[in-house]
Write a structure and sequence with these properties.
The protein is about 0% helix and about 50% strand. The protein contains no helices and seven strands. The strands form two sheets. It has a five-stranded antiparallel sheet, with no helix packed on it.
Length: about 80
């Protein structure tokens, strides 16, 4: 659950967008990766996240050659 706010500079509509992050996740204990299955069409569901203690890290490459590296840290 939760939401993701996409700044206007990165949204297709060129306006701030807030999307629902509702969905499920799968954890692969052997590969130590997490994938998300959600309705919202964001980079989050397109990335295989590397899981380590208290952290998820992933890289997303867009069709235009842009790369986004994200590290989520448990607080």
């Amino acid at each position: 659950s939760g939401s993701l706010t996409i700044p206007a500079a990165f949204s297709e509509s060129h306006q701030d967008e807030t999307v629902s992050m509702a969905g499920t996740y799968s954890y692969n204990a052997v590969a130590q990766t997490v994938t998300f299955d959600q309705t919202a069409d964001t980079f989050v569901r397109d990335v295989t996240w590397a899981a380590s203690t208290g952290q998820l890290a992933g890289t997303f490459a867009d069709d235009d050659g842009s790369t986004l590296r994200v590290i989520l840290t448990q607080q």
